Amino acid sequence: MGLEKAIRYLREGNLAEGRVLLEELLKKDPENFTVLYNLGMCYSELGVIDKSIELLEKAIHIEPLDVNANTALGVSYSRTGDYKKSEGRFRVALEIEPDDFYSLRNLAAVLGNQGKHDEAIHCFERANDVNPDQPEVLYGMALSLRQSGNKERAEQILRKLADENQNTQISELARRELSEMAMEGYASKGPRMDSVMYMVSALQKFDKMDIEEVKRITFEIGLLGRNGLDINNPEKRYTLKSMKGEFTGLNLLCHMYVGFKIIDSTVDIGVDMENEYKSALAIHRREPE
């Protein structure tokens, strides 16, 4: 009865009450696998990782072929940053149950954290075969694909996540990743005249505004950019509360760059547009009054 109540507490997210009950049960029965496993999981969620590892190691000593206990221990090791031991536990779990979704997903993540992106992609794909279209799996796969150089496939997955998971953390992360990739692509193409002309337009507008108005526009674009600005798609349009009209992502990026040059030139917005800015400034200064 006490064990059932403790597990119910854990499932409800009441970790403190669950821990107290499980500690009492462990004193009465120190070799109880179920108590050791659940208490180890509880401590892991509470952030008491050393205690979690101690309890889960004891649980595995009792039941070495338990998939869940091996996976839980792998998660605890990963939370300490010991990815080697974490990887080892997940591999043991997968030897026992090759299609265990949680072991595959977590192994893929720790492989990615170690820079083993080709292996990570393989594990993410296996996890996706077992349990298709889980956003966390697809996002992790996209990150490893990007790091391995397959940016086209990474972008396809990230766009799917951004479009199909609106107003979620995964959607926001996907948009940020797309924005970073777009910035990288921009930087690799060298100076662009379309950016120069957008900056000339921004300089003209901002010259007629006071600093507070420039801040409002710049900061609004910055907030919008946190969800990702598509700077490579001229068909995609954005609107602002602080500035009338419809704008491409690249146009807004150029306005933000110029705005921060006026407000605080030391701010790094994540993309080098200095050459375009210098050209735009030279054109703007040559314009007749």
Q: Supply the number of helical segments.
A: 15
Contiguous runs where pLDDT drops below 50 for at least 5 residues: none
Please give the alpha-carbon distance between the first and last residues: 85 Å
Kindly state the percentage of residues in helix. over 70%
Write down the overall mean pLDDT. 90
Order of helices and strands: HHHHHHHHHHHHHEEHH
Q: Biggest sheet: strands side by side, in what order?
A: 1-2
Summarize the topology.
Blueprint lengths: L1 H10 L3 H14 L4 H14 L2 H14 L4 H14 L2 H14 L4 H13 L3 H14 L4 H14 L2 H14 L4 H20 L4 H15 L3 H15 L12 E2 L6 E2 L1 H15 L10 H13 L3
Antiparallel strand pairs: 1-2
Helix pairs in contact: 1-2, 2-3, 3-4, 3-5, 4-5, 5-6, 5-7, 6-7, 7-8, 7-9, 8-9, 9-10, 9-11, 10-11, 12-14, 12-15, 13-14
Task: Give a short synopsis of this structure.
This protein is mainly alpha-helical and 289 residues long. It has helices spanning 2-11, 15-28, 33-46, 49-62, 67-80, 83-96, 101-113, 117-130, 135-148, 151-164, 169-188, 193-207, 211-225, 249-263, 274-286, and strands at 238-239, 246-247. It has a two-stranded antiparallel sheet with strand order 1-2.
Structure characterization notes:
The protein contains 15 helices and 2 strands. It has helices spanning 2-11, 15-28, 33-46, 49-62, 67-80, 83-96, 101-113, 117-130, 135-148, 151-164, 169-188, 193-207, 211-225, 249-263, 274-286, and strands at residues 238-239, 246-247. Strand 1 (238-239) and strand 2 (246-247) form a beta hairpin. Helix 3 packs antiparallel against helix 4. The longest helix is centred in the middle third of the chain and has 20 residues, at 169-188. It is elongated and about 85 Å long.
